Structure formats: C-alpha cells, structure tokens
Amino acid sequence: LIYHELTHILHIDQMSLVARWVNRVVGKTLAPNNALPMWFIEGLATWVESRFTGGGRVGSAAYEQYLRVAAIEGTLPSSLDGLGGARLCPPGGSWPYVFGSDFIHFIVQRHGEDALIDFVNRYGRYLLPYGLNNVARLSFGEDFPTMFEAWYRMRIRTATVRLGAIQKAGLRSGERLTQG
Predict the structure, then answer these.
(1) pTM given for the model
(2) Exposed, middle or buried: residue 29 (CB in 10 Å: 0-12, 13-18, 19+)?
(3) What pLDDT does 86 receive?
(4) What digits encode the pLDDT tens for the residues 130-148?
(5) What is the Cα 172 distance to its own chain's centre?
(6) Is 138 exposed, middle or buried (0-12, 13-18, 19+ CB in 10 A)?
(7) Contacts with 109 (C-beta within 8 Å, 6 or more apart), sequence order
(8) Are 103 and 83 in contact (CB under 8 A)?
(9) Are 106 and 156 in contact (CB under 8 A)?
(10) Residues 6+ apart with CB under 8 A from 115
C-alpha cells in the first residue's frame, strides 16, 4: 500500500519548473501526469508495488487468472481505451489495475525500466498534456497503440497455450450443491 500510494505522489508531482511556478501562483492546478489515462496511473502504481516488494499484484495467481479468463472469454480489452475498464464485466472496478499494470509490465519487459522512467519524466515536463503517443515515441521508440497490439497478441497466445495444457491434463469441473 505504501509503495502504491507513494508512487502516485511521486508520479503526479513530477512536473516542469514552469508548472511548479504556475501551481505556486494559482494553486495546484497543473499536473501533466495527472492527465494520463487511469490505466497508466493505476497500472504504474500497481507495477511499482509489485516490482519493489517481491509480492504485489502483477504476476499474482489472481491477476494471471483475470488476464487468462478475459483472453479466453473474449473480454480482454481490444483497444488501448479499453484498458480503463468495463465496470460491469469481471474484474469490475479493478480493470485499470489488472490490465494497466500488466501492460506496463509488458512495456518494461520490452523497453526496460529506464524507458518507463524517461516517459514519466518527459510527460511531466509537458506544459500541455495529451501528447501521450508523441512522448511514447520519444521514450520507447514506438507509440502506445503499437505496443498495445503486441501486448494483446501475447496475452491471447499465452492464454491459448495455457488452456490447451489444462485441457490436455483433463479439465475438472465441480457440481453445484446448493441453489441459495
């Protein structure tokens, strides 16, 4: 919890001197990193908690299950905007945490932690937010839609292979004992 919430503080407060000056004059109103999509904000904090605690949610059995089931049942976000969530589908309000952190983890595996740090620093220096893919290209060498497509294909492939192994081993199912 401490790593997660501290990441939010450090991430959102990463800003240029001009933004700091504006905030000093008119109150804290300009924080470019706060304009990032929720999947990035919560995904980053969830990834950091996992990276630095040896535990956390990224790679946990529950998160891997959510990801695998979503890929198999066709509810895996099919677009970058979908990472923010469909609150009525499992895992409900956890979408930005589950899918965002897994996507951030994928980006780090693909480009390294230094590239992620560079992205956060660069985006925080933007005076006019919303240049998400421009900054991504500078930091990662590719934009978010390109990375998303690679992540999506990887998740579908991983889930399909796992499902095949489960079916080969013999799928077990239970019997409902109550109706209450």
Answers:
(1) 0.88
(2) exposed
(3) 72
(4) 689 999 999 999 999 999 9
(5) 32
(6) middle
(7) none
(8) yes
(9) no
(10) 107, 108, 139, 140
